[in-house]
């Protein structure tokens, strides 16, 4: 009997495991996709997010099941073209700023995405009838409305809600060209109050919804010695009075809103700070009790969701690229973003077919000030980026290769010094870029690799090189990948080439290959 019992337990456990294998798991995207705003139009979901100093900016993703997402567009190519911070000019930069949390809406056949910028102190509203192809109409408000939410009410009025702690509201003009100044007022005097008095981060990240005649406002708050917390307010009228409560306090999963499915299920989309990989999205099931959305399972964030299993972030969020383009294909797939504003005269996929060419056009003092670093997200639990690069046309003082980009970056690359080339691994130690190891390079091409381990917040990166693409050699030491607020972004793979002494050199990237595991032959 004992043998039969043990066999029954074994087969039941297999059944449970098989059932779980067919379900989605949190996080739904193990990569940096923060400040999500999500809408459903018929049976399609659309999501916007924050990428700050990266261009093109405000990525837009699409899904049919809330789990498997694909980048389909961006709200803008560059936020502003004549800003020296955004252009990395005169030793200035805009890491961690650019544009922040967006608000995505759909109203009367038109999609709207709004965002705000601490760089320009303006708010930007982009609108289009075709969210996947555009074109976009751009409207600029001469004020930066922090973490705002645009809201189209049933009576035809359009509102904007913004602020931190003290939340404000105003009506927008019908064409969204400006705020009606006379309508500005305080919406909630102290939106943090439901989480107590000892608050480190005041309530912000407003997202406003109207469901079955009631208004619901989602915010994030962070109590001191506590965790990031969801605050929900509700009201029968948009003018109030508003009553608030803690909506979720688990794992620090917070900031977002509500979304429903065509078959009547409800979820809350939120994100979690996960150190070096960035801020990663979660979905939380929602039940309704006495007209309140109740988040989670017994107040907890579930691991499994009653939704289709994820197929992974490749190729929808990140992807390999062999730089081969068909006639009508764009030069760069949407998975790529430039670090700050690019100089489009200094990169090409046409000068040498099947290669990305990065050329130098000015001298730079450091990697973080160099233009035209081309990036993709790293992702968890493990990820690896590999390049093949031809370096025969580099000039004295040139430096090119593959990076893990954040404030405390690491990289492996080729540097030309005294008419000879060497492979260098560098990392930032106490804010100082430091050469850890180097080895001579005697040939015209080289394979480089960067590997990331985000398992259980290990947050380590390692670098490798190969002369034949088969035998790999580790170079330098493993580095820590800490999340820093000055950059406010998860680590990114970055392809770079910049000049320290002479301009006019170039390198050709044959491919960038990405993998969801750390290769066994490293």
Automatic annotation (TrEMBL):
Domain (Beta-xylosidase C-terminal Concanavalin A-like): residue spans on this chain: 321-514
Signal sequence bounds: 1-19
Site (Important for catalytic activity, responsible for pKa modulation of the active site Glu and correct orientation of both the proton donor and substrate) location in chain: 147
Active site: 35 (proton acceptor), 204 (proton donor)
Keyword match Ligase: no
Similarity comment: family membership: Belongs to the glycosyl hydrolase 43 family.
Keyword Transferase belongs to the record: no
GO MF terms, alphabetically ordered: hydrolase activity, hydrolyzing O-glycosyl compounds
Xref: Pfam families: GH43_C2 (PF17851), Glyco_hydro_43 (PF04616)
This protein's UniProt keywords: Glycosidase, Hydrolase, Signal
Highest taxon above the source species: Bacteria
UniProt-listed GO biological process terms: carbohydrate metabolic process
Protein name: Glycoside hydrolase
